[in-house]
Please model this.
Amino acid sequence: MAVRTLGWGAVVPAGMYVPDRVRRVAEEQAGRALRSAWWRSEITDAVLATWPAGPDADPLRRTETEWAVLRAACPDGQAVAASVLRSRTRQIAAFQAAQGGRLPVDVCALESAPGGGRQVVLAAADKQLCTLTRCPDDPAHYGMLTVRLPARPDPRTRADWHPTVIRFRLSPTIPLAAALHAPTLRVRGGRLRLDVAFTAAPTTSRNGHTRAVAFDYGLNTLLTGGTLTLTDSAQPTVLTDGQPVFFLPDGVLAKADRLRILGEHLWAKSAHLQALIDGRAVAGQVARAVHLREAGGPSGRACGGQ
Model:
């Protein structure tokens, strides 16, 4: 969306129909290439700005002070790996040797324009374009990717885009409980490759915990919670910080209060009719009492199952 805001969005050729979500995929890939190029440009400018001067200076054998100056010139220089700085230095030194001692002006003189890499980044797509699930027959070893692809090289209408199911083998390093994320599609050697990222579910042990959170229902508050801590001492005790937390959904509590009052009113009517029935049985009163008992009673059925 930042690319579109700048007016650099993808343009669909005339006479073709491309879903907006496919355009987002292309623009996301272009945005990643621009961010990567900008990062390399900042690193290159920092290396050039601190390039050692003198005929005997060796940029790969900088002193500790010179390396500190280089990192200070880089954006977030302390987080940049030393291998990145050295590889960029070797690239500039190779250019200098090939150009008779002339240093490059910027990263554009060192590298050509980045390409698309023959890949499709589905991270920018939503469920209307692609869905990723585990294969129901063998969820531990196979996954299923459903993505809308064109049925012809020049799609003209929405009907030319059909959902295609791709069944692929999962890496054995992916746990069964891991959450799969939208992959990146690549073509290598005439075969489709999928780069699937995943988030492993945290494992929780049943014992050994020293802190817990407890919640309870209430009349004035829907939920009341607090933290409990088990002390590590010869005689373990449970302590609380004395600072409970509350969940107060005003709309839900107001409705529950109205239903409670209605239930009490219906039960009072039912009790009154029961007293009349005990004194003089009347068919109409009996039927009405049965109806009121079904509508509400001491169990709170009129409160919507509260």
